[in-house]
Every structure is written in structure tokens, then in C-alpha cells.
User: Fold this.
Amino acid sequence: MRVGYFGPRGTFTEEALRASAPDGVDAVALPSIYATVLAVQDGAVRRGVVPIENALEGSVDATLDALAVETEDVVIVDEVVRPISHCLIALEELELDEIRIVASHPQANAQCARFLRERLPRAVVLAASSTSEAVRMVAEDGEAGRAAIGNRLAAELYGCRVLREGIEDLAGNVTRFVWLARHDDEAAVVPAGGGRRFKTSVVFWGGGDATPGWLVRCLSELASRGVNLTRIESRPRRMGLGHYMFFVDLEGRADDPAVAEALAGLGTHCEGLRTLGTYPAAR
Ligand SMILES: O=C(O)C(=O)Cc1ccccc1
Assistant:
């Protein structure tokens, strides 16, 4: 089975894929989150793996936007939570005060903000498309004084050295990754049972959102049926200030009677409501 992931080789997403993939997976590195979600939508790959949320930095907006706005047929079929520890990486051994430029994925730069501020105060911090792309670029341009933030796998793959380990702001840093599939791929759906807890992700927007209490009315549909909310995030609808999409994760399966009723009730208040997946909760 071909599984696309946010690449190039050596991302934290690749590590999450390898830690959670069934045997016989053909892992295909793709250049962006958008490309990964689209490859699932188009059927170029059967599954995709992307990051969705980090414990220090919050949502990965590119993933939320790609799922809610750019595609209609892609759903979350599983989730994986992985510890994330960052390394400072360069082509050669370097003193910290020799580093002029440090690059990484913005999520990684943000997770290491204190280290960058306190230990590399003179370095220019640049954004790269992913952590491993930053490491690959440091190796490719070969100039002294350049470093990247990434993992040990990327340092090894691109022939670089690890200068410092564990540079994230807080111990216990974790990222939640999701496995994606097309909604019509029945083999991807995990059936109820087996003693596993499930979660359901939805996105909703519009309707009475300009009226007092609209969001409370929406969420009351869940609360009144005892459906627990584990996360809520908003993203702009890109139609001016004051208009948002709300991403909500719930405990339970979309076909549990209480959840199904709650979602039907929620839908009566909204212009749009989409279920983004029902999947086993990470252990
Ligand atoms: O760029 C990567 O390696 C990713 O997989 C995204 C990411 C970045 C920082 C922490 C976790 C995931």
C-alpha cells in the first residue's frame, strides 16, 4: 500500500509513519502537507500521514485548512501521538556563537523559541518547508555558520552532525499525527468494538454566527447529550473578520446514538457541518 507523508525523507512525520504503519507499506515522501492531503484525495496514494497538533505550539493550520477547505473526500482514519525532541544540526562541528543562520519548520522553531532566544541570540531564524528540508538545505549549500533544527534521522540521512539534543522549550513535547484516507475507502474504516475508545472530528461554520449565543447553542447540542469535547479550534473562513470555522474533536463514534443526535442538532444551527473522521483514539 502506498502511503504519502509530509516529507522530504527524515521528517518527524516519517518517524510517526514508521512507528505506526502496518507491514508492507510503501512510504512516499511528498513536499508539503497540502500535497499529501491532495494525493490522498486524488488517489495517488492510498493513505496519508500529516501532523495536526503540537502540545507546545498548537494546531498545524495547513492540515486543518487542507482538510476543511481544499478537499472534500479526505477523512481522518487514525491518530498517533509521538514524543518530539529537537536537535540542532549542522554539516560540521560548530560553536553556537559561529551560527549565523538557523532554519526549520515554523512549528519546530516555535517549539525551540527559548533555546533560539537565549543560546543563538544573533542567529537569523528562517522558515523551511519541513525540519528535514532545513537539514537537507544545510547539507546542500555546505556553507559554514548554518544550522537546522530537526531529528537525528534527518542528520544521518543528509550526512550532518548533531550539535545539541533536546533543545525544545519543555520536556514532554508531543505531536499528534493523523492517518488520512478517502471517505469511500471502506478498508480504512476501523469498526467499533475491541474495547477501543473512539474520537470524532468535525468542522462547522456559519448560520447564526452573527447572533448572540450562537456558539453556546452549538456546543449545548453536545453538552446536553453528555458528549465530551476534547478540543476546539477556530480558523478564519477567509471572508472578513468575524467569520470562523470551528474544528471540534469529540469522544465517541459518529454512529454512537448520542453523538449522532448531537451532530444532527449541531447541524440545525450551522450553514455547514462536515465530519472529518471517526477513528480510534491514540492509546
Ligand atoms: O517538519 C517536520 O519534520 C514535521 O513532520 C512537522 C513537525 C515539525 C515539528 C514537530 C513535529 C512535526
The chain has nine helices and 15 strands. Residues 222 and 262 are 5 Å apart (CA to CA). The chain has a mean pLDDT of 96. The domain at 87-165 is CATH 3.40.190.10 (D-Maltodextrin-Binding Protein; domain 2).
